[in-house]
Amino acid sequence: MTAHLQVRYKARPVHSAVRIGYFALAVPLIAALAPLGRAGGFRESTPTIEPRDDAGEMTLMPDDSVEYAEDTDDAQDTDDAQDTDDAQDTDDAQDTDNAQETGEWPAASDFFLAHGDAGKRKRPRGGCPRSMVRVRDYCIDRYEAPNRRGAKPLVMQSANDAVAWCSTHHKRLCTEGEWVTACEGDDRRPYPYGSTHVDGRCTDDQPWRQVDESSLSKWPSPEAKQHARMLYQATPSGSKRKCVSEVGARDLTGNVEEWVVRTRDHEQDWPYVLAGCYWSGCYGGGKPTCRSTNDAHGPDFRFYETGFRCCRDAAQPK
């Protein structure tokens, strides 16, 4: 943006002469100092670019250089009531229609890369960073990892990956009880947004695509990554604006299936379970609810729709 400044002068002979004199003295001085600037005598202040905050082996696509900007602006981090205001809640179908074709959202190649989490460097809000929401005595990420609005949720993540990533960002993997409570709210609603399923409210109605498990089992080979991209149908975090729970956590049901620490009885006794089903609903054809779980897999299991989000204890007032 070019700023045009218009300076108006009044006819004041004495003051004008003084100004002209100062100007005449300043020109030679500027000319004399200019070579110093070119030779490095003066250093221009440049912003510091922080290194990418990847978590070791979690960087599954090291050639991917796309970074997501942090939502640090107060104007962007509006209150939950404003986020879901009818004036701002345009039709969900319009929110994501042709998103990749128009370039509005990051390319689908980003959803394997463990980008830095938006929870860092946020000022506390009710004992939680602004990128998290308060639920009783703990905080839960607003969005699925990497917990960035508009980012493609991570997939092909194992429970062990999730634990390591959350730990790297000074958080922990949510427990099953914490996840369910954040989804149901105080009224224990079966869906994060209410007592009745609403078609299109969350990303849980995408058509199922044929899976070649032999290709995915070769992860992280190029063949496996290409197949995972073909299967990927998650929507960018927060794009389904009405898919939000009472506490303000988004995309809890549908989108990507989320690893949690098992705290309830299940047929299998693995230490982790998957919650919330995914973008094509639940296996067997049911619609995802706040209590939908998959207990069939161990902590090393990863699949084309498995992701997570993190929790942490809320800060106590001093």
Spatial sequence of strands, sheet with the most strands: 3-4-10-5
What's the rounded overall pLDDT mean?
74
Q: Please compute the radius of gyration using only Cα atoms.
A: 26 Å
3D shape: globular
The stretches of 5 or more residues where confidence is low (pLDDT under 50) are 1-27, 29-109, 120-124
Mind describing the biggest β-sheet? 4 strands, antiparallel
Distance between the termini: 46 Å
Question: DSSP strand (E) fraction?
Answer: 5-15%
Helix count equals: 8
Q: What level of helicity do the residues show?
A: 10-25%
Tell how many strands the DSSP assignment holds.
10
How would you classify the helix and strand content by structural class? alpha+beta
Secondary-structure element series: HHHHEEEEHEHHHEEEEE
Brief characterization of the structure:
The protein is built from eight helices and ten strands. With 318 residues, it is α+β, with helices and mostly antiparallel strands.
